[in-house]
Design a protein that fits this description.
Helix content is about 70%, strand content about 5%. It contains 21 helices and five strands.
């Protein structure tokens, strides 16, 4: 069974080579490779999750023992994270194929999307399975390279700017990470997690606190916790909907996972627990107030993402069995639900031509299925019973009450307020985009929303020969058309081409519905999920099973 551990990393990397070799000419083969490999990763991840319930699994690549070899470890936490992430990435891939981003959109280089996406999946798996700090860093860098490619697909101005911001912030965190790794190795002679868990006890308090603070800073940037989250609302919304969905759903949770791993395995005793609780509260309040002020759906969801990261940090800051278990439940819930909401945002943009809420309306009547696909995850993230969002928040609040400290009680109150404001935010979206009547300016079916920066020639189309505004021809129904036929040309606010349609491709709807069902399954399987996360929390806090598995002869 240990031989399966490296496959979630190796299979996507192998498929990347095949995808690059296939190129544009073998589009169907390229799509088949991507879907087949991600399906295989889903199956392997489920097998690893089940097998890890009996104890951690490990493999030393090249048969070199620590600290020389590359160690990959699958325990309950990493197995669960692998399973959820592989299911979500598969759904997002299917969604992107339905949207035509990977095979029909002229703005997206076909030969690049599939390899970049597969490398991203490999980087995520490497992070979850890494058994040492150096390979954790390698996983981060793999994700960074592929993320920049995916963020800048199409090469439009807003995407390049957003991608540049993302890369600068990521490189800064990588530099801090490298310094932390260097200090750790200089102080202990290893970067292997299991060996560090034994050797950190012999270090002075000042050195371990410095290393812990540096690692928390790095992972906090990755997780987008306040006050190092300002980059996220400006970076994610400009990307294509599938890319934004997988970034918002997964990449921030990689940072949370690293916090869970290092705080329990390397730094037991919760020395910085109060600091984490303060950061959690600030993330909740600042994030949700930012969401309240937004009128663009993607930016609104980006701020709710920052806010709800605070719930996970809340559980990590408590550092007891109930808090860690609640944090894991909420991570699983949020990966799925946040991804679903961004996929729905892509469908809304395709239907209405924009994600600006003031220009949307009437979707409950004109697109009832789309309305349902939004309503379910919206109520889920707001914490309405009996959805998994309610279960995760209740578990964290109970852990805070059981903790009994003043700061924990403040977090319980902050969690309640954040949940109520989240409900207000999703109700606002529902009222503006779905419930009210359709505004006069909403884009008609077939409108092509095109960036002003896409082509220099577009500016010339907006001016007549006499120097005044150009008059756009209309059809018999008053809908603008291009001269000589074709589709309508309008100005996009997102920097990419969007063709509106009353009926999105069935593949997009099916992929979104699959993520909705996955989110609902956490409610149906709440008992087994809670039991599994409780065992996972116990294993993390005990530390012994992980250490013994990695260091056994």
């Amino acid at each position: 069974m240990n031989a399966l551990v490296p496959l979630p990393v190796l299979l996507p990397l192998f498929a990347t080579g095949l995808s690059l070799a296939a190129g544009i000419r073998l589009k169907r083969f390229q799509r088949f490779i991507s879907v087949a490999v991600l399906t295989a990763v889903v199956v392997i991840s489920i097998v690893l999750m089940i097998a890890a319930d009996d104890g951690p699994l490990s493999v030393h690549l090249g048969d070199f023992a620590p600290p020389l070899g590359i160690t990959l470890v699958a325990d309950r936490l990493s197995g669960l994270m692998l399973t959820v992430s592989s299911l979500v990435t598969l759904c997002v891939l299917v969604y992107s194929l339905g949207q035509g981003m990977a095979d029909k959109d002229d703005e997206t280089p076909l030969a690049v999307f599939h390899p970049a996406y597969l490398i991203l999946v490999a980087g995520i798996a490497c992070t979850f399975l890494a058994g040492d700090l150096m390979n954790l860093f390698v996983g981060f860098e793999i994700m960074l390279v592929s993320s920049f490619v995916l963020l800048t697909l199409g090469g439009t101005g807003p995407r390049i700017r957003a991608g540049s911001t993302y890369v600068i912030i990521s490189l800064l965190s990588s530099m801090i990470f490298l310094v932390a790794i260097a200090i750790t190795y200089a102080a202990t002679g290893t970067v292997n997690f299991a060996q560090l868990a034994e050797r950190f006890d012999d270090l002075s308090l000042g050195v371990t606190t410095l290393i812990q603070a540096m690692l928390l800073t790095v992972f906090g940037i990755k997780a987008a916790v306040f006050p190092v989250a300002a980059w996220l609302p400006d970076s994610y919304p400009t990307a294509p909907a599938p890319v934004t969905a997988v970034f918002a759903g997964l990449l921030t949770k990689v940072g949370v996972y690293c916090m869970l791993r290092t705080e329990t395995l390397l730094f037991p005793g919760n020395r910085l627990g109060n600091l984490l609780l303060v950061v959690a509260l600030a993330s909740m309040i600042v994030g949700i107030l930012g969401a309240v002020a937004q009128t663009d759906l993607k930016r609104l969801l980006s701020f709710t993402l920052i806010s709800h990261i605070g719930y996970m940090v809340f559980g990590i800051g408590l550092a007891d069995r109930a808090g860690i278990a609640g944090a894991i439940v909420y991570v699983v819930h949020h990966i799925t639900v946040q991804t679903t909401l961004f996929l729905v945002a892509g469908l809304i943009e395709r239907r209405g031509g924009t994600t600006e809420l003031t220009r949307l309306g009437g979707l409950a009547r004109s697109a009832p299925l789309l309305s349902l696909l939004f309503f379910v995850p919206a109520m889920n993230i707001a914490g309405i019973p009996p959805f998994s969002g309610f279960i995760g928040k209740l578990a964290l609040m109970r852990a805070g009450v059981d903790n009994g400290s003043v700061l924990a009680w403040v977090l319980v109150g902050g969690s309640t307020l954040t949940s109520l404001l989240t409900l207000y935010v999703v109700v606002k979206v529902w009222n503006l985009a779905f419930w009210r009547s359709e505004p006069p300016g909403q884009a008609a079916e077939g409108t092509v929303m095109e960036s002003q920066e896409d082509d220099a020639d577009d500016t010339d189309d907006d001016v007549s020969d006499e120097g005044g505004p150009a008059v756009t021809p209309q059809d018999d129904h008053g809908v603008p058309v291009r001269p000589g036929g074709g589709q309508v040309v309008a100005t996009s606010i997102t920097g990419k081409a969007v063709t509106t349609t009353k009926r999105p491709p069935r593949t997009m709807l099916a992929a979104t519905a699959a993520t909705v069902v996955l989110g609902l399954s956490y409610t149906v399987l709440a008992g087994p999920l809670a039991a599994y996360t409780d065992r996972s929390a116990q294993e993390l806090l005990t530390r012994t099973p992980y250490i013994e598995e990695v260091l056994r002869p």
